[in-house]
Amino acid sequence: MTAEHYLRFWHPTTNRETGLEVSQVGQVVTAAEKALELYREAGVEDFPGLSLSRGKDIPEDTLNIGVSLDGWVLIHTNEDFWQTVTRSTEHPGGPLRRVIFDDSLEISARCFIDWDLAIEAIAHWLNGNGLLDAANFSEDLDSK
């Protein structure tokens, strides 16, 4: 059985936080789909961000997830608060995408990976196996 993790996301117009305990990747996918639907219904062009942590008040070793229509970005923050981000080997780049966590963050389109790979990487992390090599985590948070 997988340990409980805490997942949170924010409403696009009220910034109200929704938080829940999750133990399986399917629960993360369901929450991501719900968040994306809220954003589309609100008519905002930004994308939802979800924060997945080892517990409700544990800020280190977190996985932040940006959800767009054509891929997801994963940003890992380790125990020393150093961040790495996924990098697509197939995406040509493009404009920055605004993702809303508790604050907004502009992220290069090159950081968004195929959602199947993102889900595999999330499951890998949830099960305590660290970061999935195939997701191409990089320290390069800024380049387009």
Would you write up a description of this structure?
With 144 residues, the chain is of the alpha+beta class. The chain has one domain. The chain is built from 2 helices and 9 strands. Strands 1, 2, 3, 4, 5, 6, 7, 8 and 9 form a 9-stranded mixed sheet that branches.
Summary?
InterPro entries: DddI (IPR025680). This protein is α+β, with helices and mostly antiparallel strands and 144 residues long.
Distance linking N and C termini: 39 Å
Work out the number of β strands: 9
Residue runs with pLDDT of under 50 for 5 or more positions:
none
Q: If helices are DSSP runs of H or I spanning 4 or more residues, what is the number of helices?
A: 2
User: What letter string, H or E per element, gives the SSE order?
Assistant: EEHEEEEEEHE
Strand fraction:
25-35%
Using brief descriptors, characterize the structure shown:
single chain, 144 residues, alpha+beta, 2 helices, 21% helix
Ordered list of secondary-structure elements with their pairings:
Layout: E1 5-10, E2 17-22, H1 25-42, E3 47-53, E4 62-67, E5 72-77, E6 83-86, E7 96-100, E8 104-108, H2 115-126, E9 137-138
Parallel strand pairs: 3-7
Antiparallel strand pairs: 1-2, 1-3, 3-4, 4-5, 5-6, 6-9, 7-8
Pfam family, one: Imm1
